[in-house]
Amino acid sequence: MPVLAVVFDRGSAGSVEILASARKLCSVVFVCDEDLPGSAGAAARLAEVARVLDVTGLSPGQRHAALRALDPDGITTFSEYRLAATAELAQACGLTFHPPHVAAVLVDKERQRTRLREAGVQSTRCVAVRTAAQVPAALAEVGLPAVVKPRSGAGSVDTCRVDSAGQAMAVAEEFLAGGGAEFVLEEYLEGDPDAAGPGFGDYVSVESVSSGGAVRHVCVTGKLPLA
């Protein structure tokens, strides 16, 4: 049976769900680093239900060697926080995944917007901000209302709408004071609440599979209204 390495961390799928989906298709090996926030004790918990490669405290070279020793047939992650790390492991082990330079764009919201704009996909205004002093210039380019979010983040954590320059400045100062390294100000995209009818949000989630340069859309999922 093929062996699939799953780089584990906070994400959209839990271990039980992953193992259930992989049943009769592949053997899962969870790659776990307990030094990561939220992963303390994860290796022991995962070891109760599956094989685990504990890479806690290992250097990049040691991690690569440990994974190569398992001779996996594939690698993936269900955590946005581990995209870059998974790309590095995949490249080192000769496995198919996003190349590191692509993964670097996927976890950087400002670079995402730039690449999409260059490709003619969309042109949502977006400015990277490193200090509160840069907020007025960013707002002049983006406009109000705007969205403030971490430049690198997941799950809409620390993401909020701002409707005034004062509110934007206050949110920026709070974010930076809390240890945030860098964030972006983005144009707010106004939706149509009547588009989907009562009880549904005015946006959808599109799930796609990319392989060999081809993209196949799997499903389109309606969403609940935003709070």
Automatic annotation (TrEMBL):
Q: Write down the SUPFAM superfamilies for this protein, in alphabetical order.
A: Glutathione synthetase ATP-binding domain-like (SSF56059)
GO MF annotation: an example: ATP binding
Domain named ATP-grasp: which ranges? 113-191
Give the highest taxon in the source lineage. Bacteria
Give the keywords, sorted: ATP-binding, Ligase, Nucleotide-binding
Q: Does the keyword ATP-binding apply?
A: yes
Task: Give the PANTHER family listed for this entry.
Answer: ATP-GRASP ENZYME FSQD (PTHR43585:SF2), FUMIPYRROLE BIOSYNTHESIS PROTEIN C (PTHR43585)
Q: What is this protein called?
A: ATP-grasp domain-containing protein
- What organism, scientifically named, is this protein from? Streptomyces katrae
What phylogenetic lineage does the species belong to? Answer: Bacteria, Bacillati, Actinomycetota, Actinomycetes, Kitasatosporales
